[in-house]
Amino acid sequence: MAAGSEQWYSDDIAEVVVSAEQIKEKTAELAKQVAADYADRGEVLLVGVLKGAVMFMADFARALEHPVELEFMAVSSYGARATSSGVVRIMKDLDRDITGKHVIVVEDIVDSGLTLSWLLKYLTSRGPASLEVVALLRKPDAVKVDVPVKYIGFDIPNEFVVGYGLDYAERYRELPYVGLLRPEVYAR
Ligand code: 5GP
Ligand code: MG
Ligand code: MG
């Protein structure tokens, strides 16, 4: 492949924070760890949080080598960034009952942690047999609430990133890496 994956959108991306290769390696590593931890449990139910987690969910599920069911939820946070209210609305709920299931929430990024914190309470109330979280990215300097995330891919600086599922105004999700946008992009 002559043209690198950073070719398109290259004018918009200031810096690659996590490369496609790094994501691949880390996903395999996390999958191995999870598969080992869940070896003596049966099927695992992965709950992906739309839309940001779709890429990671797809790659993680395929790397896992453990039987899974896939579920998706869509939530929207109100004022999570500005006011830290942590008020969350469910835009798409689970399609099925998770009672007695071994559930792993698959997240793109833990920023303030408010969305995830709310989501974990919600899922706990549905009576799963166990509940853990795997998140590709975390911004340690942005965390406002302590959320128990057992499996973490990368700790990144407290800056807005796009790619590999993460968007800016619904764009850049398809980038195979995670990068920083040039400031000019926000000014458009
Ligand atoms: P929270 O602040 O509740 O932990 O993050 C909620 C959601 O905001 C994340 O799941 C993610 O979808 C979005 N988010 C947080 N940080 C970033 C970021 O740096 N870039 C993008 N594109 N989305 C982010
Ligand atoms: Mg998310
Ligand atoms: Mg977004």
From TrEMBL:
Localisation per UniProt entry: Cytoplasm
Gene3D superfamilies to which the protein is assigned, alphabetical: 3.40.50.2020
Family annotation (SUPFAM superfamilies): PRTase-like
Principal EC category: transferase
Entry keywords, A to Z: Cytoplasm, Glycosyltransferase, Magnesium, Metal-binding, Nucleotide-binding, Purine salvage, Transferase
Catalyzed reaction equations: IMP + diphosphate = hypoxanthine + 5-phospho-alpha-D-ribose 1-diphosphate; GMP + diphosphate = guanine + 5-phospho-alpha-D-ribose 1-diphosphate
Pathway annotation from the record: Purine metabolism; GMP biosynthesis via salvage pathway; GMP from guanine: step 1/1; Purine metabolism; IMP biosynthesis via salvage pathway; IMP from hypoxanthine: step 1/1
Domain Phosphoribosyltransferase residue range list: 20-168
InterPro entries assigned to the protein according to its UniProt record, in alphabetical order: HGPRT, Hxn_phspho_trans, PRTase-like, PRTase_dom
Nucleotide-binding as UniProt keyword: yes
GO cellular component, one term: cytosol
Cofactor field: Mg(2+)
Pfam family, one: Pribosyltran
Chief location: cytoplasm
GO biological process terms held by the UniProt record: GMP salvage; guanine salvage; hypoxanthine metabolic process; IMP salvage; purine ribonucleoside salvage
Example GO molecular function: hypoxanthine phosphoribosyltransferase activity
EC code: 2.4.2.8
Family: Belongs to the purine/pyrimidine phosphoribosyltransferase family.
Name of the featured protein: Hypoxanthine phosphoribosyltransferase
